[in-house]
């Protein structure tokens, strides 16, 4: 994930400053180049200018942790994030991080917390964990995941600092000493290693921050299917019965198939609306005729399907009684049809059905234009279903991969 994760603190001598950051890179130079820090005190240093923590992933990604970022503009952005995260962008409800945006520089997710320190003003020090990113939507999507892990990091540091604080208080109560002497100047701020009593605290933070960057990249990925050949290569079975199948976009001419308007005139408007609804939502249809060839009606209904060979739910029956959940189109006498269906049309019909009916009522559309338009509508509907299917497949793959 192309982002920067850092930890910042409030130094009583130098103000809010970043002290440690982790980022991904493919440049080996970033793993050997010295950090450039203008201010040096115990609290504002972490690894030192010559120390770099590096982790290499199997795919070649390098997770690099340093005191500062090599890029000057990003360093300035990181310092501004430190100032805002500690001074104003604070979530007092303690339920998660705060997200704030900057279209010119980037977007930030920050979590502010305190560590107990016997030598600090108010016996507490302010710290914050920040995530800097250019992609606003990706940051918003992964905020719940990152915010939860940032809270766990803060609790882990607080537990370590509490142990050191309690041990120092047992030796000498700083609160009582300050009330008695009025002394409040304790020199430079102490480093995070001294506050937590853990010499490997920055190695632990490096592993946490590297996990956050990797988890964010694996949780949300984008796959673009740009061509029919690529989709056939990735998953050939998804082509069957879709708009990518050979001949799916071909519109039958009037010689091979009855027009939709002629079919509506043959069946009457009310019967045609019921068949239109049942055809689109996939209700089984049974056709029984006396004088008319039933295949003509089947070919007319085929215009409503994106792929002509998907009419398995429409059949012709002779003599046998259909089941109760079947819509039966029956020719009562010559040119008179009735529709027997246990259900009724809903008050609000599908959008695709409404668009087809509006197109049929448009006098400016001749039959050829109407059929082309209806074909484009059903193909658009089918492609939308394919997109939803591919999104579900991608989300399942990302879940198991993660």
From TrEMBL:
Protein's GO biological process: negative regulation of transcription by RNA polymerase II; positive regulation of TORC1 signaling
InterPro entries registered for this protein in UniProt: FLCN/SMCR8_DENN, Folliculin, Folliculin/SMCR8_longin
Domain UDENN FLCN/SMCR8-type: 42-402
Superkingdom as given in the UniProt entry: Eukaryota
Pfam family, one: Folliculin
UniProt-recorded Gene Ontology molecular function terms: GTPase activator activity
GO cellular component, one term: cytosol
Annotated protein name in UniProt: UDENN FLCN/SMCR8-type domain-containing protein
Organism: Manduca sexta
């Amino acid at each position: 994930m192309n982002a920067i994760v850092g930890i910042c603190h409030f130094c009583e001598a130098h103000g809010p400053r970043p002290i440690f950051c982790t980022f991904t890179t493919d440049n080996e130079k970033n793993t050997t180049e010295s950090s450039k820090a203008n201010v040096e005190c115990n609290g504002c240093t972490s690894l030192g200018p010559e120390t770099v923590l590096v982790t290499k992933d199997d795919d070649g990604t390098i997770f690099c942790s340093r005191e500062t970022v090599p890029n000057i503009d990003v360093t300035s952005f990181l310092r501004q994030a430190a100032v805002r995260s500690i001074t104003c962008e604070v979530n007092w409800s303690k339920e998660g991080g705060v997200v704030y945006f900057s279209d010119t520089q980037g977007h930030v997710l920050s979590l502010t917390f305190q560590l107990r320190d016997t030598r600090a003003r108010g016996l507490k020090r302010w710290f914050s964990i920040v995530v800097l990113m250019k992609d606003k939507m990706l940051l918003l999507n992964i905020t719940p995941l990152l915010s939860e892990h940032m809270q766990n990091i803060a609790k882990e540091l607080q537990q370590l600092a509490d142990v050191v604080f309690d041990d120092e208080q047992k030796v000498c109560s700083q609160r009582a000493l300050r009330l008695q002497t009025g002394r409040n100047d304790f020199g430079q701020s102490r480093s995070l290693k001294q506050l937590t009593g853990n010499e490997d605290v920055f190695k632990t933070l490096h592993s946490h921050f590297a996990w956050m960057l990797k988890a964010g990249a694996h949780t949300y990925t984008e796959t673009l299917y740009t061509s029919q050949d690529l989709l056939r290569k990735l998953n050939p079975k998804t082509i069957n019965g879709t708009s990518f199948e050979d001949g799916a976009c071909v519109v039958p001419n009037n010689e091979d198939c009855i027009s939709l308007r002629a079919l509506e005139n043959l069946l009457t408007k009310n019967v045609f609306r019921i068949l239109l609804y049942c055809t689109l939502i996939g209700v089984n249809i049974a056709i029984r005729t006396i004088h008319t060839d039933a295949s003509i009606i089947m070919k007319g209904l085929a215009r409503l399907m994106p792929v002509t060979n998907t009419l398995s739910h429409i059949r012709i029956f002779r003599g046998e009684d259909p089941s109760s959940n079947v819509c039966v189109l029956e020719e009562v006498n010559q040119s008179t049809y009735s529709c027997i269906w246990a259900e009724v049309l809903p008050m609000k019909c599908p959008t695709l059905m409404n668009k087809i009916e509006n197109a049929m009522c448009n006098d400016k559309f001749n039959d050829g234009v109407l059929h082309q338009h209806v074909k484009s509508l059903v193909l658009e509907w089918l492609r939308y279903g394919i997109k939803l299917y591919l999104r579900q497949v991608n989300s399942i793959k990302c879940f198991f991969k993660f």
